[in-house]
Amino acid sequence: MNISLKEAARNLLEAEKIVIASHVNPDGDAIGSSLGLMYALQGMGKEVMVFIDDDIPAIFSVLPGYEVIRRPEKGVEKIRADLFVILDTSPDRIGISGDVVEAHVLNIDHHVTNKGEAEFSYVDSGRAATAEIVYELIREMGREFTGEIASCIYTGIATDTGFFRYSNTTPFTMRTAAELMEHGARPHIISEAMEQKSYAVVKGMAAAMQTIERFCNGRAAGLFMDRELTAGIENTEGFIDMVRVIEGVDVAVLLKCKEEKLCRVSMRSKGLDVAKIAAGFGGGGHVRAAGCTLEMDFADAKRAVMQAIEEAMGA
Ligand code: 5GP
Ligand code: MN
């Protein structure tokens, strides 16, 4: 059921024990939104836990609260809470986090592909990041921004907007970022931490770049990482940006083959609706940034993705 921002704030205000979860493959918005909301609610004396069913990349250790994020375990007794807040995704992409909690569900998200089917949903696809919505919720609840809250929320906004460069960046984004700076967020510290890569990853990047191929008469290009290449590179953050910058390219793809018959796809575009293409494979996202998982081997996944993009471009 879709509810208003005011109602979402009221749900949060009324709950005493709250569990927060976000999506697998967590990014800066998933982590920043979760921790920012956690600090705001804890500041009101509430009991709050954060679950993410995945490894948390080490670059996020720059954020306060990094160490309190828990990974859910199978077979443990369910945690009874007043509210289970799912951030930055619909409830189907949180791994087993949902299995460890028994509570009313409040889903807060900014993805166009989120249909608002949770018990309570507040989805605003006009916001650049879920962290922007968390900012609005904290204001709606009448709370002040501490340095911790500001740093976490700033990180979510900065990472989802490509550090204020993508087309989802709005005047609201800029005003919010400025206000968060006034409350203690330090952009240079956060961006330096987010950009950091190990020596091995930078060397791996060079190998991955060798796989770039253009298709659709140069209007699309992809980085196609087979199993061996994928296994050797722990973090591909930013790789797709190297495809995006190629002159004439509208759609950029990154394909990673993680296991036999398991490939991850990321897409970015300057115009074409890639959320629609991702949704066609059971994934989703935004018009200009989307992803999906294909249960195919490398060669089939590569062919399927290229074909889907070619069809979408022809249409
Ligand atoms: P990324 O390429 O950075 O993994 O994801 C781009 C955007 O698409 C993000 O907003 C992300 O949440 C969304 N996205 C990525 N993969 C999936 C997926 O498998 N399902 C859905 N629903 N959204 C995805
Ligand atoms: Mn997001």
Describe this structure in words.
The chain has 315 residues and is of the alpha/beta class. The chain folds into two domains: 5-195, Alpha-Beta Complex (inorganic pyrophosphatase (n-terminal core)), CATH 3.90.1640; 199-314, Diaminopimelate Epimerase, Chain A, domain 1 (Roll), CATH 3.10.310.30. The chain is 37% helix and 21% strand. The strands form two sheets. The protein has a six-stranded mixed beta sheet with strand order 6-7-8-9-11-10. A hairpin with a 3-residue loop joins strand 10 (284-285) and strand 11 (289-294). The structure holds guanosine-5'-monophosphate and manganese (II) ion (MN).
Please specify the SSE layout and strand pairing.
Blueprint: H1 5-14, E1 17-22, H2 28-42, E2 47-51, E3 79-87, E4 101-109, E5 120-123, H3 130-140, H4 147-160, H5 171-182, H6 187-195, H7 199-209, E6 213-215, E7 220-225, H8 227-231, H9 239-244, E8 251-259, E9 262-269, H10 274-280, E10 284-285, E11 289-294, H11 298-314
Bound molecules: guanosine-5'-monophosphate and manganese (II) ion (MN).
Residues 25, 27, 93, 111, 113, 266, 283-286, 289-293 line the site of guanosine-5'-monophosphate.
